[in-house]
Amino acid sequence: MKIILTHEVSGLGAAGDVVDVKDGYARNYLVPRGFAIRWTKGGEKDVAQIRRARKIHEIATIEQANEIKAQLEGTKVRLAVRSGDAGRLFGSVTPADIASAIKSAGGPDVDKRRVELGSPIKTLGSHQVSVRLHPEVAAKLGVEVVAA
């Protein structure tokens, strides 16, 4: 099935790309979550608009991505969350929580869709998080989750 991506999807493409994927992947995952729309002849007009919006939010060069990477890796991120007695969290830490914690810690503004968690963060302590700034540049960030 041909679709137009409206958001960046790891391993598939960036916003505005027209890609061909399996029908079930498009119907059950990409379209319901708003990551893509079905391709139509009229939808080609949307591609130009999506690409313009992507250029506004996109980090243009590798040098710029490396500068932001240096800022991120120098930022200490602490996240205060509610937890139980054994150190387990009530819920989990989301990429949106991490993006807002980076901003409040004085770091650069990071889109929540660029924060990649290896596995859900459900315990107190230090955790490693990857932030994909550019297709070739990713920053490793230490996040310390503490009890509120």
TrEMBL record:
PANTHER family: 50S RIBOSOMAL PROTEIN L9
Annotated Ribosomal protein L9 domain residues: 13-40
Biological processes per GO annotation: translation
Family assignment from sequence similarity: Belongs to the bacterial ribosomal protein bL9 family.
GO MF entries: rRNA binding; structural constituent of ribosome
Record keyword Ribonucleoprotein present: yes
Alphabetical list of InterPro entries matching this protein: Ribosomal_bL9 (IPR000244), Ribosomal_bL9/RNase_H1_N (IPR009027), Ribosomal_bL9_bac/chp (IPR020594), Ribosomal_bL9_C (IPR020069), Ribosomal_bL9_C_sf (IPR036791), Ribosomal_bL9_N (IPR020070), Ribosomal_bL9_N_sf (IPR036935)
Name of the protein in its database record: Large ribosomal subunit protein bL9
Lineage of the organism: Bacteria, Bacillati, Actinomycetota, Actinomycetes, Kitasatosporales
HAMAP family registered for this protein in UniProt: Ribosomal_bL9
